[in-house]
Amino acid sequence: xxxxxxxxMEVGKDTPYKMEYKGKTYYFCCGYCLEExxxxxxxxxxxxxxxxxxxxxx
Length: 58
Hints:
Elements (H helix, E strand, L loop, with lengths): L1 E2 L6 E2 L6 E4 L2 E4 L3 H9 L1 H5 L13
Antiparallel strand pairs: 1-2, 3-4
């Protein structure tokens, strides 16, 4: 299991919602989180606290 960087949910690496960015694969719980990351990846990569977690409703 890996953590969805957008909402913090644990997801399996077999999820269809994944994206390569700067040589690393990121995994998401749903299409909404994938699109949020795609819009502004640096927002989620630079977040040190959980304050910026997106509430996807999954």
